Amino acid sequence: MKRGYLADYFVGVGTKRLSGTEVDPAISNGHEFQGTRILQAFLGPPSTRRSIPCTYMWLTDEEAPVRLDATATWYDSRANQPHRRPEPRLLYTAEAEPVVYQASEGDTLLVCLGRDARLTVLLCRAGSDIEQQLLWLFDLEPPTAQFSQRDIRETDQGALSFAARQILEAIEVEVPVADDHWLEALLKAFGPKFPGTAAFSSFARDLCPEVDPKGEPDSTLMAWLELEETLFFTLERHIIDERLRTGFVAASRTDVHGFIAFSLSVQNRRKSRAGYSLEHHLASIFEAHGLAFERGGRTEGNKKPDFLFPGAAAYRDDRFPDDGLTLLGAKSTCKDRWRQVLSEGARVRRKHLVTLEPGISRNQTDEMRAADLQLVVPAPIQTSYLSDQRAWLFSLQDFLALVRRRAA
Amino acid sequence: MKRGYLADYFVGVGTKRLSGTEVDPAISNGHEFQGTRILQAFLGPPSTRRSIPCTYMWLTDEEAPVRLDATATWYDSRANQPHRRPEPRLLYTAEAEPVVYQASEGDTLLVCLGRDARLTVLLCRAGSDIEQQLLWLFDLEPPTAQFSQRDIRETDQGALSFAARQILEAIEVEVPVADDHWLEALLKAFGPKFPGTAAFSSFARDLCPEVDPKGEPDSTLMAWLELEETLFFTLERHIIDERLRTGFVAASRTDVHGFIAFSLSVQNRRKSRAGYSLEHHLASIFEAHGLAFERGGRTEGNKKPDFLFPGAAAYRDDRFPDDGLTLLGAKSTCKDRWRQVLSEGARVRRKHLVTLEPGISRNQTDEMRAADLQLVVPAPIQTSYLSDQRAWLFSLQDFLALVRRRAA
């Protein structure tokens, strides 16, 4: 499976902390991102005025990205002063104001130049998850008032990791992982449609023999997840391919409604798949370790934590000691939904939550600690966290050791 | 504009409060929804065992719906007892367990029979927004342990309102509002692409002359929103139609990536449109009333409430009295994001939030009141709220009167 490299998508990227002059129309209407002169390294010297296709995105941890496809202008503000050296500037178009003005002084700007010569302007809050994730993805230092940049062509980095691909997905860059080498086996097992999520996850595990769920639970979980992801996108591509060949035009009438319904079904299947996949594979690892646990067992108020160790019967049994109970939520991405876990079982003081989300911000992990929630992140994804966060994070291995101790 | 009727989509609908026997596998594996015998009125007497196409959905106020298309079984449990009258039962398929088991004892079930003879099984939490919305949409009494139902064919109800269409959208029933009567004007103004959201909203207002923003602000806002919605879907249908005619197959290769990108762009444009539209039209109404206000003005910590009256300069001026300031958030749908407004301006004790969301649950509105947030709902949408909630709600008219008093 070739997973692609960052350099397949980007040439270079720069960042800075935004000033009011750049994004506050009450201060300036200059539409300029300052200090971007050094983008010359990627954009070349400006002619008088060059228009470059540019995607603008405002990214938050709570809502879907606000995106606009327009242009940016790369120009030499000293074009009329032939005796002085060029002074290149990057301007955003007036059309992009509704996106750019979402940002405030102190927020973070990233300017990315794609391999396809398109620019992407990313704006996000300082201290947000998405900021930490993007800085990690592009290997950038925390932004300052000075625009600083990195040449991605020069870097000798490994293939894009699971964590990296998740972040790229958030900025709507899709890294293809489908692999038709698996298609025959998929069609033989399920035909051209998806089975239930449990059956699909189990199929992925069966095809992934060189793993060690007992000795290497963290890397085993990742291997299962990644193979299932490849299988999912392989079968999805086949299904979409077939549907597109049929087309959405019959007797010269187009089926707009059919298109919307089909595309919604594709998006929704993608959304719900990841969560189920994580839970199924975790259950398989807990079984391999011979742990007693229950999925979806009820606690008080009909709450249903994803995993309860040893189970709901013990939870409801007053004679069973509180400190023998473990409650684990599982969320493939957290966003601000991690708080839901806090109310899922009053008897368990410290809750655990396992996630695949890379680089959750220090703000969020501080709040988790304050709420006595221990985050569990598979070891390969922990590299996207800051070093002081990593000291606190549990790996899956750590979590398993805890549950074993409590069961002993 | 023909907006459609509920009876265009549904024949009948029933509801009950779920018991553990129905949804808790620890109690029963019977897969039966109890008391559904009376569905005979719509489904007819069961043969021994009839399989009916059925969509299962688990609906929450926080996450995207979990949906599964499968079947349900309608059968006569006394088929072998020819001397007794038939005892019809509705069973869900084992395949639907991952959706049905999301529900717990005490949650709410709705069984809808569509005009297309498909069943839709909807499951949601008791006391949730979506429960209140669905009960209002289908005009059902609050569910009890007994299955009760309503014949939609018999009702003489008006065309589907804006509120009703929003709720149908939540259960993925799309009510077409496009109207090609507007297409020529749209193409003349913008060509086959969308302009900025402000320009589009302004275009809609210009085409909507018989309104009275000063005297009838609530109905004017709704008229603008509804016409813009029609214009949006008319132009969208044209754009999709053109794209589908081109197709996603070239030289016998399909463009799966192009399909995904195009369908994402359609979904994202839908998502971001509604919010902008509401803000633009509100601003136009505030202007018609000659009120001083500012959109996106900064308060402390770089927070940007949607509307600040009279403006950010007054907010930052310590000599300006606190009780002369009004802060208004605008969210076309609230979900649990209404809390964001609470931190957008410490000087304004009671915040206001205007929304188009129908039938927000009493749980949520109680929490809003406790947090000193006054909800503003255009009068035509207030019918979807319970009577005690309506006594508390502000209309847009009420809100305008308050701001005028403060400015006087």
UniProtKB/TrEMBL annotation, chains A, B:
GO MF annotation list: DNA binding; type II site-specific deoxyribonuclease activity
BP terms from Gene Ontology: DNA restriction-modification system
Gene3D superfamilies: 3.40.91.80
Domain Restriction endonuclease type II EcoRII C-terminal, chain residue ranges per copy: 232-400
TM region(s), chain numbering: none
Domain of life: Bacteria
InterPro entries recorded: EcoRII_C_sf, Restrct_endonuc-II-like, Restrct_endonuc_II_EcoRII_C
Pfam families, A to Z: EcoRII-C
Protein name, UniProt field: Restriction endonuclease type II EcoRII C-terminal domain-containing protein
